[in-house]
Amino acid sequence: MTVLIDPPNWPGPRGLMWSHLVSDSSLEELHAFAARLGVPARAFDRDHYDVPETVHARAVSMGAEAVSSRELLRRLIAAGLRRRKRHSPR
């Protein structure tokens, strides 16, 4: 059971760079970790939390494993937890 975080490489609100926080075992584990980290529930998006660069070091110090974005996605898919966006018909 591991919570993973990728580098803050994604531009986002407030001029910050953002990371993705995921679990490679369960959404329950992910939600519990995010709550301990103080990440609001509104930051959850289908299968991950978007977290600002200001949270990255604290997440790692609390036990999240820092991995590349590619590795994060690979492990999320391997765990069967990837939830892709559904495209609505036009």
Automatic annotation (TrEMBL):
Domain DUF4031 positions: 3-78
InterPro entries given in the database record: DUF4031
Tree of life domain: Bacteria
A family per Pfam: DUF4031
Name listed for the protein in its UniProt record: DUF4031 domain-containing protein
